[in-house]
Give the backbone structure.
Amino acid sequence: MRWKCICAYDGTEFDGWQRQPGGAAVQNHIEAALSQIFSRPLQIQGSGRTDAGVHARGQCFHFDADWTHSPEKLIRALHSILPTSIRIGSIRAVGDDFHARFSVTGKRYHYRYYLGRADPMDDRYVWACRDLPVDLAQMRVAAACLVGTHDFTAYSASHGKDNDPNPVKTVTRLDVKQRGKHVHLEVEGSGFLYRMVRSFAGALYAVGRGRLSPEDIRMILESKQRTHRVVTAPAKGLTLDKVFYD
């Protein structure tokens, strides 16, 4: 049987999602727990990687195994083994044609800034920036330049074999909102290149501070070349909110 699972994790203490030789990734922990429950080596397939320090509310993965009890019992068994920073939200049986990675139709990410020194309860999940105002209107104008189908090479980072061979992606939504000292960036799209969302976050923050203009954002995009003017925002402010499937 194939099982579709949704999990959440605090990425602070992990070496990202993807399995690592040292065993310190989220995937390592889930696979070790499942292997213990099923008494055999068991591997999972995730919807995609997240970097070290990045969090998730709706990461999806699947695995193949025969389980004769309820999904709720498997969730309880996993929670008895997994660290508390990894929680399983749901498990359900799916057809063999479902694939956590290749069946993805889109993803939603959330990036959080905090203007000032963040509260200790929030600091693990925000980019604590200088306690100065940002020009939200200009950030929104710049964000609109990134919506649509484009070659996003200029807003990605090279990473050897993990490079996506197709730099053309469709961003369907890029919203910038502010509540007090909290600034939120929500991004939805068909797919994202390596560090693309964090590059958006860094570039839009530069716009908010007046270091870049919306026209700069557009011209950088059209150049299809990475530039030092685009700074990659810290990982801890980023959360994978949801993975979409048909």
Remarks:
- The CA atoms of residues 68 and 140 lie 51 Å apart.
